[in-house]
Amino acid sequence: MTQIRPFTLSAWLIGALLASAASCVSAQQAPADNSAKSAPNSAAPAKSSAKPATPEEEPNTQILSDTLHYDDIKKTSVFTGNVIMTRGLLTMKSDKLELHQDDQGGQFGVATMNNASKLVNIRQERPETFELIEGVGQRAEYDGTKSQFDLIGQAVVTRFICGKQFDTIRGQRVRYNDKAGTYEAIGGPGSSAPGGRVRSIVEPRSRTDQAVEECRRAQAAKAPLPSPPPARNSR
Predict the structure, then answer these.
(1) 210, 100, 118: which is closest to 161 by C-alpha?
(2) Which residue has the higher pLDDT, 231 or 8?
(3) Of 71, 82, 84, 86, which Cα lies nearest the Cα of 13?
(4) 126-131 long-range contacts, Cβ below 8 Å, gap at least 24?
(5) Which candidate, 194, 131, 141, places its Cα nearest to that of 167?
(6) Is the pLDDT score of 220 beyond 60?
(7) Nearest residue to 153 via CA among 134, 171, 175, 178
(8) Are 18 and 108 in contact (CB under 8 A)?
(9) pLDDT at 29 > cutoff 50
(10) Cα angle for residues 171, 172, 178 (degrees, 5° grid)
């Protein structure tokens, strides 16, 4: 079944990038008295002081757009018009976002702009190290199974620490893994660096460590931290 509905969307359809809603429904319909059936008929067991281990929760995903085309059979969603995807502390802005879920439950997305002169914008906050990662490119591909983005065409990834710019990577394609915090870059004719090369500017580790420590001391003293830089105008 295919539906086309223009509206601003809070994307329940994807959960965590097209997560299956059926699994949530089945969990809610589970019998409420399973624990009672498994308990012995004698006195109730004493409560354990140890807390059961819980798996790390996936962050919620919200997508705002002007229109949505959702295909339930193909498990695809196409968002268009001022698309803003927020997943935990990661935000991506584009003109169009296509999401797909494979038979194994893996989620994949492709973000593009309507004009080649405009760039998809990705921002990832890492508050534990006072970092902000910003990436731009003509196209962005997301692989949920690996938790990574590929920025393609005029790609630039920049790292800010405590509001100050540090490392910068330019190339035809720059890959960023938001879970591991790693980068890869490939040159080519569409590189944002001269001559189609990869260009990297990396600050010494001593400077980055010093910047993090300064932020930590400022936070401990409850001094206001520098504001992060404004998002680049990708529109």
Answers:
(1) 210
(2) 231
(3) 71
(4) 126/89, 126/181, 127/89, 129/161, 129/212, 130/161, 130/162, 130/211, 130/212, 130/215, 130/216, 130/225, 131/159, 131/160, 131/161
(5) 131
(6) yes
(7) 171
(8) no
(9) no
(10) 70
Q: How far apart are CA 144 and CA 105, in angstroms?
A: 10
Contact yes or no for 131/161 (Cβ under 8 A): yes
Q: What is the mean pLDDT of residues 209-222?
A: 87
Say if residues 97 and 116 touch (Cβ distance below 8 Å).
no
Tokens 């529109």 map to which residue? 235
Element (H, E) at 78: strand 76-87
Per-residue pLDDT at 26: 36
As to burial, measured by CB atoms within 10 angstroms (0-12 exposed, 13-18 middle, 19+ buried), residue 117 is exposed
Are 143 and 177 within 8 A, CB to CB?
A: no
| Cα–Cα distance for residue pair 3/103, rounded to 1 Å | 21
Nearest-angstrom CA–CA distance, 126 and 141: 21
In this prediction, residue 228 carries a pLDDT of 67
Phi and psi at residue 165, to the nearest 5°? -75, 135
State how far Cα 101 lies from the chain centre: 16
Overall average pLDDT of the 131-141 stretch: 95
